[in-house]
Write a structure and sequence with these properties.
The chain is α/β, with parallel strands linked by helices. The chain contains ten helices and 15 strands. The strands form two sheets. A nine-stranded mixed sheet has the order 14-13-12-11-7-10-9-8-15. A hairpin with a 2-residue loop joins strand 11 and strand 12. Helix 6 packs parallel to helix 8. The radius of gyration is 20 Å and the shape is globular.
Length: 343
């Protein structure tokens, strides 16, 4: 089988430390071209991966014969660049959040369908072994009725990891559109939708910019969410967890409490109401602090969806539904009311 010819648009940290490394590790991929508006960054990345360097993504799409594109750009560029790549006949893996509005997300989905191409959004939390095991337990009925949850994603902020440090686009509202809530919170919104296999119908949120002096976006956010069947829980996203990253989820059910990525030794602990405790060593969730996320399984899943002609697990519709939770939270903040989501 011919290799999947790939281009990566945006050569910042997410491309450098995840997409390009994982593409390179995949035997079915040939990295053909890379693009970044910073010419030196594009050239260095191209040299490292034996690819051609571009500073204009439109020129890249016009000149190169490519099958698939990773869009690793500031949030406000996700939709226009993804749509351009889809229109050029490429399958697209877009970083999260997929867009800055529901309208943009719908346009991306329409472009994928019109051109018969795959659109996948990079929500890697679904591929974490403990999360997949928890989903199996929930679906089996072993936990009984699910009552509540709390889920958290926080670290010291993107300046320690982003290519541009404290000057990063992450902190600029006109480029990022949202802060910690879009960077981290959307991952957890997607995870809870995946685990519970339900949509959220009501969202209330509080956000604050208190930890990052120059930021024009939120750096701390807490959401209260209610699902279709009445499961209620909290989602916290923060760039102010300075001592240690927290990427944990706790699910409270009729027959057990399930703790995910909440213990330094066990990736999942199930505490049953009868007193039994089961501890799972499934391989911990990867973090940017500990050697990067080089086996997130996102790239492999994307490539397989192309080669096997399968629908990606997180397609455009799934990405949009998770984005909608964050958009609902923004509406709640603006109106100071509980936001009722569309069914």
């Amino acid at each position: 089988m011919a290799k999947v010819r790939v281009a990566v648009i945006g050569c910042g940290s997410i491309a450098k430390n995840r997409h390009l490394i994982e593409y390179r590790a995949n035997q079915q991929v040939d990295i053909v071209a890379v693009c970044d508006i910073v010419e030196e960054r594009a050239k260095q990345t191209a040299e490292l991966h034996e690819a051609k360097a571009y500073t204009d993504y439109k020129q890249l799409l016009n000149e190169e014969d490519i099958d698939a594109v990773s869009v690793c750009l500031p949030n406000y560029l996700h939709a226009p660049v993804s749509i351009a790549a889809l229109e050029a006949g490429c399958h697209v893996l877009c970083e999260k959040p997929m867009a800055t509005s529901k309208e943009e997300a719908e346009e991306m989905i329409q472009a994928a369908e019109k051109n018969n191409r795959k659109l996948m959004i990079g929500h890697n939390q679904r591929f974490v072994p403990s999360h997949q095991k928890a989903k199996q337990l929930i679906e089996s009925g072993e936990l009984g009725k699910i009552y509540s949850f709390r889920t958290t994603f926080g670290h010291g902020g993107p300046e320690g990891w982003s290519a541009d440090g404290v000057d990063s686009w992450f902190f600029k509202k006109n480029e990022a559109f949202v802060g910690a809530m879009g960077d981290l919170g959307v991952h957890k919104a997607d995870l809870m939708r995946y685990l519970l296999n339900e949509e959220f119908v009501e969202v209330a949120a509080f956000v604050e910019t208190s930890a990052k002096e120059k930021a024009t976006v939120d750096d701390n956010a807490t959401l209260v969410m209610k699902s279709e069947s009445g499961i209620i829980g909290t989602l916290a996203a923060s760039w102010a967890y300075n001592a240690k990253e927290d990427n944990s989820t706790v699910i409270f059910a009729e027959n057990a409490v399930v703790r995910l990525e909440d213990d330094p030794n066990y990736s999942m602990i199930v505490q049953y109401t009868n007193g039994e405790v089961v501890k799972y060593e499934l391989g911990g969730i990867q973090s940017n602090e500990e050697g990067g996320q080089t086996t997130s399984h996102v790239i492999d899943h994307f490539i397989k969806s192309i080669t096997a002609n399968q629908q990606p697990l997180i397609d455009g519709y799934e990405g949009m539904k998770s984005l909608n939770v964050i958009l609902a939270a923004l509406s709640s903040v603006e109106t100071k009311q509980i936001f009722q989501m569309e069914k």
